[in-house]
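Standup notes
- DV: blocked on the single-chain target, sequence here:
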Amino acid sequence: MLCASNGSQALELLRTSEIDLVLLDVVMPQLNGFQVYKEMKSKPETRLIPIVLVTGLTHEEDRIQGMVCGADDFLSKPISKQELLARVQSLLRVKKFTDELDNAETVLSSLALGIEAKDPYTEGHCDRLSKYSVRVGETLGLPAHLRIALRRGGLVHDIGKLAVPEHILLKPGPLNDEERKIMEHHTIAGERICAPLRSFRHVLPIIRHHHEKWDGSGYPDGLKGDQIPLTARILQVTDVYDALTTNRPYRQALSSDRALTIMWEEAKRGWWDTSILEVFEAIVLGSGLDNDAQHAAVTRLTDA
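- DV (later): unblocked, structure below
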């Protein structure tokens, strides 16, 4: 157990030590408990640490402030030792579960990046897709859980390629029919790999369906139009753009304008969702969408 005599010292301990749970007194020198709490929750490395706010204050507004801050628990002095231990044990069980999920996601992301690293032409591909897709989601005003799914989906969408033999995965020329069938199975394999993670339930449709096409000619399920999950439609547009604007063994990277021209030609053939392509093009070109255009795009997509 580590002890701090003031709020600043508490933050220093959090920076230098592995902490599983924080008992945080509201009244402290330098920084009070609410200030320390807000600082912890603003940083990715400490925001998931459970916090119990402890106080001798009895004013209702203080308790309300603690609840509004989002404290995991709030105890008033004098504190029952048995009650404190019970609550701490409960929060530590939750923390252990959260750590396991976080570790699993880290492993999956590392595996996905390992696949990417095998091909020098795809360096940074997953990270770019993640950022592109989240930007589209933000522009469309998608809820937080779908933006998180887009971020994760960008990183792990091709994790099923772990099941693809390396001679097929890295083949420089076109695949034959048998090889193509094996390659296309990576979407299903990826879904199975990630399915045990409950926190990935909104990511699974992205993994399985990011190779579907608007006209139903894609794989693995031949979904058509609005049958394709919105998040998968977003990722597939960003995926195509990144492929076109990245160097390949058989061609140099295309300019943004040329890549978008090709994508609009493909959209006219029925491959991509034009509503999403319109939003993505505005983001790439830096023009953005005015309020009316954004509202129209959101209406088309969310009514689907």
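- Follow-up: The chain has a mean pLDDT of 80.
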